[in-house]
Amino acid sequence: MKHFLSTSTILSCAVGVTAATGAFAQQTYDLGTIVLSSSLTPTELGRTGASVEVLEGEDIGDRDGAVIDRLTRLPGVNATSNGSLGAQSGIAIRGLPARYVGTRINGIDVGDLSGTQSQFNYGGLTPSGIGRIEVLKGSQSALYGSEAIAGVVNITTFRPEKLGFSGRYGVEAGSFDTYSGTLSMGYKSERGEIALSYGRVTTDGISTQSGNVEDDGFDQSTVDLTGEFAATEALTLGGALHYRDGDVDIDRSATDPSGNIASKERGARVFAELDAGNFTHTLSYSYFDIARRDPTGFTTRFDGERQELAYLGSARLSGAAVLNFGVDHTEESFSTSTDRGDEDNTSIKGELLVSPISTVDLSAALRYDENSDFGGKTTGRVSALWRAMDDLAFRAVIGTGFRTPSLYERFSVYGDSGLQPEESVSYELGVERTFDAGFVKATLFYTDIDDLIQFDGASTACASGFGCYNQVPGTTTSKGIELSGEYAVSSAVTLFGAYTYTDAETDGARLTRTPKHDTLFGVDLALGNRFSAYADVRHVADVVPSAFAPANHKVGDYTLVGAGISYDITDTAELYVRAENIFDEDYETAGGFNQPGRAAYVGLRASF
Predict the structure, then answer these.
(1) If DSSP codes are grouped into helix, strand and coil, which group holds residue 24?
(2) Is the CATH number 3.20.20.70 carried by domain 35-607?
(3) Is residue 545 within 8 Å of residue 509, measured between CB atoms?
(4) Could you read off the pLDDT of 270-328 as tens digits, one per residue?
(5) CA-to-CA distance for 463 and 585, rounded, in angstroms?
(6) Model pTM greater than 0.90?
């Protein structure tokens, strides 16, 4: 019988997999257990040379009200935020900021085309409806095109895992008058599935800027719908819808707390997959638009739109080789109350996956992008995985990447239409040792970026009179090491930890807002009588503030302590309490913007 989960649907994130365990949801090398989006088609975790972290199920949201806080517990990931839940926020991977990180939800590219750079705002992303997150690290343009110099985050929403009707729900209340609720439900049959997730959150928040005392509230609704149906033994049809509608208060300045931004994003993706034996053909179309309104701002309207038509083929050449190949065409546009611009891009890509012997897996990917404004760009990636023993594996990856100048950087009043893409190359070497009680993992990484694009106050390439975006001299490099591990001391006690050292600079000048040292240590406890608990400590050290940070900023070292306890009311329902920033650390990740102090939350989550 044909399995109804299509290749195209899990290109960005795999579904129907065993739930991850432990603090990092890092799986051991159990071949065939988990599939990932580290290639153009799904690849088992134990057979990919790419560096990837996986979060699933409750592990995404059982310790945080915002996804960004969970992501920063992963090795190599940190974040900056202009406030609390709902505020403009972005993640950095291996020291490289948000403009170098691509983000997709159910296969839809959700980068904000209306912004200064095309990047996803993680400030309002809650765990509501999310079933799985994969964080791929290193230059991934050979697979994902632009904005993938640092890596790519792939998000999949709830999918039913058993036949029939099933779902989950949760409610939570806590500090800053925060209330949230989520409901996910779906139906799965032998031939298809459909799933719907709805989430709602509202909070009074905190004062965004340190010079104000008025709270900046946030409220948001999200809806995600996915579905697939095996029309015949060979043909599968499916699609996804994404909707997010949020409203956030901001402090216009240190003396003006009256700002408010309304944001609405809509996305859709449909596909048809034909399984022709050793060949699979997938045709898909995706759409995304975002509309932001800032009624009292200097610019009051921001709109962006993206459409993509794609074909992907996959051919099994033998039992040890798979060839993936495809072509896609993307059209993007943006407009504000004063500016507008558009572009289109066509790409051709191919990837060969080979296992010359049972303990070695190799992959090579090549992609050519032809842009309507600046011509062609070729990128590639080569990876290798060697399982020296059943419990010991070595990885090596070399990849190139690029970031096209954003539409704003080219077509706004501060733009330069002659800008060329930034280019990158990244290297990494990794080793992982697994054992019955846990794992240890280490990865050395290095990335450099040339043809940098920055705002240059002395440039006259545009007509602003105040400077323009410009191709500036210099090379950005980020290098370091990621360490992580987990060890079950007993059936009741599991220890986990991570450490990342990052040395990121541009021609000798440290990158701002990037910690040199990021350490996490924690413990999970099974207390018996249906009780469980956790506690963790994260310490960030040696951070350089932005040159625009005010004189009294608090960007620097900080330590965050969190803890929680839960009680299984039944086998499918759990009551929990958690505390964040227990010692009320006063800190900032972006100069002049507050972060939440001590907070506590109580909630109920259940499945059916």
Answers:
(1) coil
(2) no
(3) no
(4) 999 999 999 999 999 999 999 999 999 989 999 999 999 999 999 999 878 999 999 99
(5) 45
(6) yes
